[in-house]
TrEMBL record, chain A:
All residue ranges annotated as the LUD domain in the record: 69-294
The name this protein goes by in its record: 4Fe-4S ferredoxin, iron-sulfur binding domain protein
Keywords assigned by UniProt, alphabetized: 4Fe-4S, Electron transport, Iron, Iron-sulfur, Metal-binding, Repeat, Transport
Domain 4Fe-4S ferredoxin-type: 309-376
GO biological process, one term: lactate metabolic process
From TrEMBL, chain B:
Residue ranges occupied by any Cysteine-rich domain in the UniProt entry: 26-107, 155-239
GO function term, MF aspect, one: oxidoreductase activity
Protein name per its UniProtKB record: Glycolate oxidase-like protein
GO cellular component, as recorded: cytosol
Annotated source species: Psychromonas ingrahamii (strain DSM 17664 / CCUG 51855 / 37)
Stored InterPro entries: Cys_rich_dom
Length: 479, 274
């Protein structure tokens, strides 16, 4: 699998922009997502209210995280679930692999979880003796293609239907030769069904962890989480600690926000609350259940004033509405989490030093914040990361020089006006028929656009002249 | 230095003056782009504000709102710029800017950099309270309605992100433009999607910005309008620059204030002459 690195952001962007169909393929999904979300919000008059409520639930749980984590552990243990704590991704991955090895697992099914990607679980399995089987349709596609995910809700968004046809024909034992979506889905189902039934371990993520019952909730449209979890003898949940909510009553408003913001649906096909291993009278279910609670930078975010980001419920609305994401796609970010939320998270999961360029790949247009179901001030958080990056001198020297020089002028208005006037004279030299096609020091602009020719002199110059003339006239009139 | 940091500090006579609509004392912050690239927007602003009954003054010691520094993460640079902006403008009744983006900078972001300086925070808050974007100020505060303006043709409107999302400027320009005789509105598809300007973004990530503005240009051209209007010089420069690079001369970008002040024929005439 070829995985882009966050520190190669400039290169990744150039490569993404050079892909002729990428923009069109992304648009197919994001345009639909935008329209459907807008319809869903319009049909849910209490959306604003739910948003405030959702934010409050998350803020409250984050504030009393220690209390709810302890409560969750107590109730999960009471159900017979084995609880593990991991402070890093590596540690979490190791815990999961160790459990699999204890059971001498050969085949492991996994339902889609971005946390799994975050902690490097897919990679860890690929380097092990065990076979990893992704059961979410989109994850199945990218597993066949050998791609990392490019979106947190639609990981295979960068693949067109034509690509999928090719992949299924190449990899499925009994592939469909029709290009109809229903036939493609049937082909995937045929291929996966037997794998579900013969898996040794089922691994899932969690959309919500309920502290008062020790349950974990999965939200899918394909039922693959249920099929991943039920047949194997062992179920392992991997979840970030920010998934906690006090109770079912607190999870429900968030669930309503999540589905509407992600796909525009009022509810997904499957919303399941998993409650530990099979009980004596249960017809089926895992005999053993583990939950791995992962920190991986989350408590550090809490300590560093980034607690608002821990509200994130991973709906993907911010990337669906981001003009930058729509043009470069998810892979360019070089991280599991792309788009606005990813540009805030990656510096914490990885480091600001390697992921500071992404924080600048934003026009500060505010659309992500406008659609965020839990009111995360994403542009403000991105800017605060830019400020940290500035203080740590991670910015390229030329950028620092330009910004600082401008600031030095701007805090001296007389000098600023003088330089503005000289700037106009300078620009005039390069103007032809009202436009500047090229000028030194402005290649960032003129590489792609023309620059409008300025008027003869600055506003201030003209204004002062008019004012002086008026005063002269007034004096004459007075005399 | 003036100690006045809030309306509470006004003398009774000042307050009475303030209530008199004809005595609104407005400080115009022309913005650095208007100052260097398009002074006519500044003069159009003065014309409109005076028509709306304001007394307009343009402090000579003004520079930039500080956005390049702020958006780059240079908080100290931003503060340095903000100190003198606050000093220059805090004693007006109102501060008006012909730009949603620069107005939002003063209204929303100065507060952010003065979090730990209580005295300056109070002064920044006061400045935020009296600061307005031009088009919303004319409609919301002055209840201004343009009169006797004519312009033949059709226009489409680009809502700049800061104006639209941070300051909720949407109805105001459309309302005023509806009074212009002969001018027809053609709605722009994805009107509230960013044009890719984003201040320093457009030069830092020129190629991404180019893709974004390319799409904006397609939407603008699809309206077949004669004029592209907006309230921010940055966005207009970006879209117009891309239109011209692609050879599209059939649509002209103008600031809404220029049209409302009746300067459009003069600007278009000047353009034809060149």
């Amino acid at each position: 699998m070829r995985v882009n690195k966050p520190e190669d952001f400039y290169k990744n962007v150039s490569e993404a922009l050079a892909q002729p169909d990428l923009k069109m393929i992304i648009r197919r999904t994001t345009d639909k997502a935008e329209t459907k979300r807008a319809e869903a919000v319009a049909n849910f008059p209490e959306f604003e209210n739910a948003r405030t409520q959702g934010q409050k639930v998350k803020d409250h749980t984050i504030k009393y995280m220690d209390h709810y984590l302890a409560e969750f552990e107590k109730n999960a243990l009471a159900q017979g679930t084995i609880v593990h704590w991991a402070s890093t991704g590596e540690e979490a991955s190791k815990i999961v692999l160790d459990i699999c090895r204890q059971h001498k697992a050969k085949k492991v099914t996994r339902s889609k979880s971005m946390l799994g990607e975050e902690i490097g679980l897919t990679h860890a399995f690929d380097n092990s003796e065990m076979e990893r089987i992704e059961t979410d349709l989109a994850e199945h596609i990218i597993q066949l293609a050998g791609d990392p995910p490019s979106h947190i809700v639609w990981p295979a968004m960068h693949r067109s239907r034509e690509d999928v046809v090719k992949l299924f024909r190449e990899f499925h034992a009994d592939p469909t030769y029709s290009e109809e979506i229903t036939d493609l889905v049937r082909s995937a189902r045929r291929d996966l069904r037997n794998k579900f039934l013969t898996s040794d371990i089922g691994i899932s993520g969690s959309n919500f962890l309920l502290a008062d019952s020790g349950s974990s909730c999965t939200v899918t449209n394909e039922g693959n989480a249920e099929l991943t979890i039920t047949p194997p003898k062992v179920h392992i949940v991997t979840a970030g600690i920010e998934k906690l909510v006090p109770s079912m009553a607190h999870a429900v408003p968030l669930l309503r926000l999540l589905t509407r913001s992600a796909t525009g649906a009022e509810i997904t096909q499957y919303n399941t609350f998993h409650n530990g291993p099979k009980r004596p009278n249960d017809a089926d279910g895992p005999e053993e259940c583990h939950i791995v609670l992962v920190d991986n930078g989350r408590t550090k975010m809490l300590a560093e004033g980034m607690e608002a980001m821990l509200r994130c419920i991973r709906c993907g609305a911010c990337m669906n509405h981001c003009v930058v994401y729509k043009h470069i796609g998810g892979h360019a970010y070089g991280s599991v989490y792309p788009g606005p939320m990813g540009s805030v998270l990656t510096p914490h999961l990885d480091s600001l030093e390697v992921a500071n360029k992404q924080t600048h790949a934003c026009t500060m247009n505010g659309r992500c914040e406008e659609v965020c179901p839990v009111n995360i001030p994403l542009p403000t958080l991105l800017r605060s990361l830019r400020a940290q990056s500035w203080d740590k001198k991670y910015e390229p020297l030329t950028n620092r020089f330009v910004v600082q020089s401008f600031a030095i002028m701007a805090k001296r208005p007389k000098l600023f006006q003088l330089l503005s006037s000289s700037g106009v004279i300078f620009m005039k030299v390069f103007s032809r028929k009202g436009w500047i096609k090229y000028m030194p020091f402005t290649s960032g602009w003129t590489r792609n656009r023309d620059l409008i020719e300025p008027e003869s002199t600055t506003f201030m110059h003209q204004y002062k002249k008019i004012k002086n003339e008026k005063m002269k006239k007034a004096k004459k009139g007075g005399a | 230095m003036s100690q006045k940091i809030s309306n509470a500090g006004r003398t009774p006579s000042n307050t009475i003056e303030c209530l008199n609509i004809s005595e609104k004392k407005v400080g115009l912050f022309v913005t650095c782009l208007v100052n260097t690239m398009r002074p006519s927007i500044g003069f159009a602003s003065i014309t409109l504000l005076e028509q709306a009954g304001c007394t307009v003054e343009v402090p000579e010691l003004q520079s930039c709102c500080g956005q390049p520094a702020f958006n780059s993460g240079d908080d100290e640079g931003t503060r340095q710029i903000a100190y003198q902006t606050i000093k220059q403008f805090e004693n007006f009744d109102y501060v008006v800017l012909p730009s949603g983006s620069c107005a939002a900078m003063i209204k929303k972001n100065f507060i952010e950099v003065f979090k730990d300086q209580p005295e300056w925070l109070a002064r920044a808050k006061h400045l935020a309270d009296i600061t307005h974007e031009l088009l919303s100020f004319l409609v919301d505060v002055c209840q201004f309605e343009p009169n006797g303006i004519e312009l033949d043709g059709s226009y489409t409107y680009h809502d700049s992100c800061s104006g639209y999302r941070a300051l909720h400027v949407y109805e105001q320009p459309r309302k005023m433009l509806s009074t212009v005789k002969g001018l027809e509105h053609k709605p722009l598809n994805n009107h509230s999607e960013c044009c890719g300007f984003g201040g320093t973004f457009c030069v830092k990530y020129s190629d991404i910005s180019n893709e974004i503005v390319g799409e904006k240009v397609e939407n603008v051209l699809a309206t077949e309008a004669d004029y592209l209007l907006g309230g921010d010089m940055g966005c207009l420069m970006n879209i117009a620059g891309k239109l011209n690079r692609e050879g599209h001369k059939e649509i002209t970008a103008l600031h809404t204030a220029e049209v409302l002040a009746g300067l459009a024929p003069q600007i278009l005439g000047g353009k034809d002459a060149s």
